[in-house]
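Long-time lurker. I teach an intro course on protein structure, and each term I like to show students one example going from raw sequence to a predicted 3D structure in token notation. This year I'd like something fresh instead of my usual example. Would anyone be willing to generate the tokens for the chain below so I can use it in lecture? Attribution to the forum is fine with me.
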Amino acid sequence: MNYHSVWYIALVAASSFLFLYTYYKKRNQPVFLLLLAAIGFGYIIEGVIYNFLHSYVYYPRFLTNNPTYDSNLGAIASNAFVLPVIAVFLATFRKNWRWSLSFSLLLIGIEWLFEELAIYKQNWWRNEFTFFGLLFVYFPIIKLLYRWLLNKQEGICHFLLLFLIVSPILGTIHMLPLMLLSNRYYDLGWYENVFQDTNAFAAIYYICTGLTITTLAKWKIRYRWIKLIILIISLISITRLLIYIGILHIFVWWDPYFYITFPAIVLIFAEKVSKILGRRTEFLSEK
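-- Reply from a regular --
Happy to contribute to a lecture. Here you go:
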């Protein structure tokens, strides 16, 4: 372990403790669902500014043989732990704008420190973007999502909440084997680095899969197996098409089975979450 990774592990550990505290204090409320939604919203923003626009680079040095995937792990530390956990804390405890301001200043202070330590580098991004983005966009939207979660949802709000909850599961499970096991990559020719191609296309892939699963989960039909068959056939067809046109390259035998099986499991989870969002229960109520 090097000093780069120690800083990232410390951030993950601190945010994990904060989430455990929040969950303990608010365990009768949908804290875990809010965390997933906060991660999902953060992933979408990161997909644009990080995957496609290359706003910054992380240097946690967990994967020293692949700088692109190593940077991805730094992004996961930020967007699956630190930022969403703070947003959930602020939302569930109904903290005012002074708390949001303080945490925004704290986070740009951490950005500055990481730059000074040369474990994070901004390309065109600036600390001001982080500050105003957190204070006026990210934190307020997570507070809005929390209010949605505390009430019965229908229509577009139900769909958006469900998508934000299931999509980070799909995105994370999609990317982790790629980065750690090198089981596949995507080659589109968009970037000189095939791993950046993989990042970009994987983001598109998981969002499309998330939209499909959200739609199927909301589809009221008597037999669940029909939804599963539709999803599995769709995933098999997409996989074969991507291989045929030369975008997808697979290196291990289990890869196709894995990328077909885990979305089917997520669909079952999405159906359960959809039922929770669509009804008032003691779990969702707050006095």
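Some talking points for your students: Residues 155-181 form the longest helix (27 residues). The radius of gyration is 19 Å.
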